[in-house]
Amino acid sequence: MIEVTKENFDGEVLNEKIPVFVDFWAEWCTPCHMIAPIFEKLSSEYEGKVKFCKVNVDNSPELASRFGILGIPTLILFKDGEEKERLVGVQSEEKLRSVLDKYV
Question: In whole angstroms, what is the distance from residue 74 CA to residue 93 CA?
């Protein structure tokens, strides 16, 4: 799991050849902690097919602003440098798999 900041976002996410799933979260966010184990599990299962990154919105408010993050957790799937899917709030493992499976 890669922690992404404004300094490395473009290189780690937008310039990547495989799909990248980004979790915009915060330490104080209870729903973020609820989805974290699912995100971790999927990062292992999709290793090599999808890159998983996290953005702490408190540490990187400019990224939250750049991508219009209004609620957290917000999960965005990027492919070829473009946003393809956006999910806001706690999601089921099945829902996350269905999004990932469209792009692998």
Answer: 15
CA-only gyration radius of the chain, Å: 12
Catalytic residue among 32, 35, 75, 100: 32
Our answer to whether residue 53 is catalytic in this structure is no
Mean pLDDT of 20-40: 97
* pTM summary value: 0.96
The residue-averaged pLDDT of 54-82 equals 97
Q: How far apart are CA 102 and CA 104, in angstroms?
A: 6
| Of 20, 22, 29, 53, catalytic | 29
Strands 82-88 and 74-79: antiparallel
Give catalytic status of residue 29 as yes or no. yes
Which domain CATH number covers 23?
3.40.30.10
Mean model confidence pLDDT for the chain: 97
Statement: residue 1 has pLDDT above 90: no
Give the number of domains in the chain: 1
The range of the structural domain enclosing residue 47 comes to 2-103
